[in-house]
Amino acid sequence: MTAEEIRLNARLEAEGLEVTESDLGEWIIQLRHEGPSHMVLPAIHLSRYQVRDLFTEVTGAEQSVDIQKLVKVARRELRPRYCEADMGISGANLAVAATGTLGIVTNEGNARLVTTLPRVHVALLGLDKLLPTLHDALRILKCLPRNATGQALTAYVTWITGAVPCATGPGGKKITHIVFLDNGRLAMAKDPQFKQVLRCIRCGACANVCPVYRLVGGHALGHIYIGAIGLVATYFFHGKDKAKNLVQNCLNCGACKAVCGAGIDLPSCIKEVQARIQDADGHPLYAATAGAILRNRKLFHTMLRTARRLQKPVTGGTPYLRHLPMFLMKGQEFRALPAIADRPFRDRWPDIRPQAEGRGRRVVLFAGCLQDFVYPEQLEAAVTVLAARGVDMDFPMEQSCCGLPLTMLGEKAACRDLAAHNIRAMADDDAPIVTLCASCGSFLKHGYQRLFAGDPAMAETVERFCHRVIDFSSYVHDVLGLTAADFAGPGRTVTYHAPCHLCRGLGVTEAPRALLGDAGLTYLPAEEEDVCCGFGGTFSMKFPELSQELLQKKLDHIAATGAAALATDCPGCIMQIRGGCEREGSTIAVRHVAEFLAERITPKKD
User: Fold this and answer.
1) Rounded-to-integer distance, Cα 343 and Cα 105, Å
2) How far is 155 from 158, CA to CA, in rounded Å?
3) Which of these, 57, 103, 392, 555, could form a disulfide with 362 (CB 3.0-4.6 Å)?
């Protein structure tokens, strides 16, 4: 990949040299004049039939589609090249500073032939491959094959220390050159936010789990480096002009962060790249406008209330926007969009607020935009559950949007202002902050810490605020300790969708499923429950075709369970999945976990 990064083949060929890729996948795409679509499996986008046609053309003989026979064709064609080559160029996965040793990891053995047979060996590697000791290298070696190909160990691990014996070389030694490549790596190392990216071991796992990559492939989701790491690396290696469109493709689902063996926070790095590019090139009008509106709570809420009154002609008396003009619905026909509720939760709160009992348990409710103004019934359900167990509650009226939409738009400064506003709105209380929105919860708990990193004036305040945040299911299950004895009512079959920001952002997986079982519901697991539904906030508006494909996969998996209902912990996921069900005419009820609990919780025992 380092040679691909600097377009080495093209430059060597322009100098009149004959260049042959020795990795099977790389050789295939070289013959097709394409770039790699994956860091470990560069030709993964091609079928055996396409390779058969290519090899037939190259050899002039009809070839089989049998993979083993195609491999033998490649072996027969490539072996003479090793013997005839004047110079072998390799990369290196590891470079041990203490001993001057290069470590090369392969599954085909081609690196051993490239570094052994030619008289000259050139090793080209990034500065990030340099490690202090062999012990450090062995730790990476344990992680790399597992994350890259699911192997405990690769077929070939080659160690090269110094100039090895070579009969035709000067003094009986091979001519060896080791070239370390910077190309933005030192700048990355000096950046507090991005220095973590240099821990990348190039396993490609972030691409394997990325919902967007799985739909569009590597050529559309990268410049040279693909997947989540490519969205960041491109900015440093090839400049903001190559990266500015790529970074828009992130769903912020967190799958890449969860699988990364090096522990790199790729989603936050991608959004930081987007913010920096916009700071340098100017902010798009729609993003800047959203920033100006959301950072002003009164303006934002006034606009929502005005929209509620203006929406009546387009709802048709339903909870959905039925008759929006096509220019407003462009690309969004795959789902039914919800209407704004008649009364937001903040207006209902004075009427439904339980009388304080002063029994010691007390929480502060954080609504977020959707549950305050679109799905207030979800918060009402939470109030029912908490009140039934004597929990006192408060709802600060100054709270507003959590700010995650602004992060998705690259409006970092506006997001900081909004975060500071929410922290002030809840600063006079030490009670737990309970939210029913997984996205809000994850962003409040972790995103606010990133926003104010390096700001010592806010450090203690932000840490105290973030420590208070807990999602509804965890609070009910882990803190209140509700069990099957707390519920009664008719049973039904239900499946579950795990919101990205709950299962990965907050690390909550067991609590909601346990609560569904305790409430007397028959839980039917669905395939890929923790894969993104395709909403991704503003992602679904920018890329409706991809959002639709991801939603359809989710709907198909849900339908396959045969469940009568679906539960989840995120209003954004509910908007996406319920909207898709409505458009399909599905009878599956899509509701928040709190709603299922509220209709089954038993009266409090004295």
Assistant:
1) 61
2) 10
3) 392
Q: Which residues is 177 bridged to in the sheet?
A: 122
Amino acid at 102: L
| Residue 533 confidence class, pLDDT cut points 50, 70, 90 | very high
Q: What is the pLDDT of residues 284-295, one digit of tens each?
A: 999 999 999 999
Place of tokens 């508006």: 541
For residues 571 and 370, the answer to whether their CB atoms sit within 8 Å is yes
The proportion of the chain whose per-residue pLDDT surpasses 70, expressed as a percent, equals: 98
Predicted confidence at residue 222, as pLDDT, reads 82
Measure the CA angle with vertex 176, ends 170 and 177; round to 5°: 135
Spatial CA neighbour of 345 closest among 314, 304, 403: 304
Mean of the per-residue pLDDT values for the chain?
Answer: 93
Q: How far apart are CA 401 and CA 576, in angstroms?
A: 19
Look up residue 307 and give its two tokens.
């929209």
392, amino acid identity = D
Sheet containing strand 120-126, edge to edge, reads 87-90, 120-126, 175-181
Confidence of residue 372 (pLDDT cuts 50, 70, 90): very high
Collapsed DSSP state (helix, strand, coil) of residue 459: helix
480 dihedral zone (left: phi>0; alpha: psi -120 to 50; beta): alpha
Which tokens hold the place of 25? 């996948």
